[in-house]
Structures are given as structure tokens and as C-alpha cells.
Amino acid sequence: MDLEATVHMVLPLETGQSARGEWKRQDVIFALPGEFDRKLCVEFWNDRAADAAALRPGDRVALSINVESREYNGRWYTRVRAWRMNRLEAQTGAPAGAYPPPYPPANAAPAGQQAYQQPQYQAPQQPQQAQPTSAAEVDDLPF
């Protein structure tokens, strides 16, 4: 199965020793494109773990993965293992996910234009209440 995703988080590298020798596993959380925010944890083993450890949040990659489920004591466990990963180049122009700043820097004004200045804060004035003039206006209860 092939998919394109954006790196969300790189988890710590796990290592261990088995009967067949030393092993390394790198788990990476990817954000999948689509209408809803979906995350997918993908395992990279041994030689591929070093490549995955070099990923940074925001990197876009193309993945080839295998999805496998197995049963243990009546429960099912699913693993997603990557067997190929290619980094995708950022689109021309702005880097992926970057937006231009909404306002120019405070000390720089574009040529031929005035610098923007923030208006001074003024405390709102309290409206003045009219003083009651008769006893009927003081007591507003109907009984």
C-alpha cells in the first residue's frame, strides 16, 4: 500500500537484543491528508530506522507500507510497517505549512508607504446615570 503523509512526531528509537542479533525500531507518527485530522503510527525496522530518525515534523514523505493484524489471547493487534520511504520536495514558493506574516515588522515600512502605528489604548468612559427626581422614580416596585 502506498500513501503520502506529513511527519507529525518522531518517537524515541528503541533497540534490543534477540536470538538473531541486535534490532532497532523507530516509530513515526504521520498526519494523513483528508477532511479529518487522522494520525498513523508507522514502524521502521533496523536499517530503515536510521533513515526515519532523520525525519523532522513537517517533512512530507511517500511511504510504501504493509498493514498486518494478528490475534493474541482473544485480542487483535495491528502493525503498520514501512518498507520504503521517499522524501517529497516542498512545493515551489513557500514551504509547506508556512504562511506569510499578517503584518509587516514594526520597524520596517514599505517604500512609498507610511508605517502602521497601533492606536493608543483609551479606557472606555462610564455612562452617567440620571439621578431620580421624584419618589415615584426611586421605587420601581409595582406593589
UniProtKB/TrEMBL annotation:
Among the Pfam families in the record, one is DUF3127
Question: Bias category Low complexity: which stretches?
Answer: 108-132
Output compositional bias ranges, type Pro residues: 98-107
Q: Which InterPro entries match?
A: DUF3127, NA-bd_OB-fold
Give the span(s) annotated as Disordered: 93-143
Domain of life of the native organism: Bacteria
Name the SUPFAM superfamilies on file.
Nucleic acid-binding proteins (SSF50249)
Name under which the protein is recorded: Domain of uncharacterized function (DUF3127)
